[in-house]
Amino acid sequence: MMKLLQAYKNIIRKNCLPQGDLESFGIAYWSDKLFAETIIYLLPLCLIALAPGVYFSFLIQNYSLAIFDLTIFFLILIIGFVGTINIQIKKVIFLICMYSLGIFLLYEIGIGGPGLIYLFAANIFSLLIFPIRFPYLWSSIILIIILVFGFLINFELAPHLTINPNSVSEWIAVTSNLIFISFISSALIPKLFVGLEKTILKKDQVQAELKIALQKTKEKNEDLEHFTYVVSHDLQEPIRMISSFLALLEKKYDEILDQKGKQYIFYAVDGAKRMREIILQLLDFSRMSRLESSTEMCDIQLMVDEIIQDNQKLIENSDSTITTTDLPRIIAQKTALQHLFHNIISNALKYKRDDVPLLVQISYKDLNNFHQFEIKDNGIGIETIYFEKIFVIFQRLHDRTKYQGTGMGLAICKKILEKIGGEIWVKSTPEIGSTFFFTIPKVKIVAQ
Fold first, then answer.
1. CB burial of residue 39 (10 Å; 0-12, 13-18, 19+)
2. Structure confidence at residue 225 (pLDDT)
3. Could you tell me which of 96, 181, 103, 104 has the C-alpha nearest to residue 130?
4. Which of 3, 14, 17, 78 minimizes the C-alpha distance to 42?
5. Cα–Cα distances in Å, from 260 out to 244, 256, 263, 378, 403?
6. Per-residue pLDDT for 215 more than 70?
7. How many beta carbons lie within 10 A of that of residue 283, not counting itself?
8. pLDDT at 446
9. 359-401 per-position pLDDT tens digit
10. pLDDT at 447
11. How far apart are CA 230 and CA 15, in angstroms?
12. Which of 28, 138, 173, 216 could join 126 in a cystine, given CB atoms 3.0 to 4.6 angstroms apart?
């Protein structure tokens, strides 16, 4: 039953709505949309009212009423189910039906019937589904109809309308309210539509400007990332040359150089080494912006085991332990995941407390639309005020002589997760430890 109802709605909408991108139609589209929805609900209501209406017409032997009802229903069927007729023509047919029905009911039943209600409904629908260039046209049509009926009543050209000597007075009293409401509607509804249209146009303008600004920002970011990549790549060669010549200088003139000279060379070599590390990290940072979007099945447990194996010597020497709990296999970008786990685990190993054996615990939680990983350690911890700072490029919280590094590892992690639609954050207490959380969007496997 629901499928049949949906199919019925789809047919009406297809036949009574312009095809295309609704955003390009604005108010005109929603006017047509309202017309289509009206037809959807009007047809079954007409069908419900048709049977008692036809029965009543036969009961009072007024067969013209039955013929008129059937004609109106047939025309609305054509509007809803014939797709070859222009939408504007359909609207005209619809309004002719509404006005004709109001006039017919007024003439046949009189003031006590629903004729005036149909005329008012016709006025409102006219304002809603037609352009607002001539808003008072529809109220004027109603005024003319009412004046014509007043003329018929006054000169007794329609005897069944003239019930008593005060018929004209009653007609004026009843219809004056209708005329008042119709003209008020003609004044206010178009203003509402004009306001809505201005709002939509303003919104479209803002969205267009935002789209242009985002495109420019994207282009500038791409240029900056390309510049970073090129500069980082080209700087490696002179850094290697500096390090090599300093090493040769130290080797050749070892006997001539005094202790201070050797110390200067050591500082220069150490600086060149740090510069090379920064350049390599910058290369990694720029590469993260160009990560391949392809995904594959990743065994997280196997990935972590490989990282542990690569750092086995450091783990043993620092009396550290890394444990895992129920790590899954997920669809994701493998390179991105390797960088994430490597950087966070490396940080945990680096920032351990001297007097406490390091324990790193890696766990997993399945969220609705995300995979969430937690990497918890009992290291030196981080103060709350630095929770955001640690994810900014080149931001270090400790002296380089105590903890080596460039201050880019967590910035790279954040950049990776921003690119793939995830998040990273930390909870930590100084001298107690830190827990890094990061989420990765779930990827559905699409059948080939």
1. buried
2. 66
3. 96
4. 78
5. 20, 11, 5, 41, 25
6. yes
7. 17
8. 39
9. 999 999 998 889 999 999 998 888 888 888 888 765 655 555 5
10. 36
11. 57
12. 138
| Closest residue by Cα to residue 425 from 352, 381, 374, 370 | 374
- Residue in this structure with the two tokens 């006219």, named with its chain if needed: 126
Q: Give me the pLDDT at residue 322, please.
A: 92
Instruction: Render pLDDT for 280-328 as a digit per residue (tens, 0 to 9).
Output: 666 666 665 555 567 788 999 999 998 888 888 888 887 888 999 889 9
pLDDT of residue 365: 92
Q: Which amino acid is at 267?
A: Y
- b/e 169-196 (16+ beta carbons within 10 angstroms → b): eebeeebeebbeebbebbeebbeebeee
The pLDDT of residue 363? 94
Tell me: pLDDT of 331 over 80: yes
Burial of 343 (0-12, 13-18, 19+ CB in 10 A): buried
Q: Which tokens sit at 32? A: 């047509």
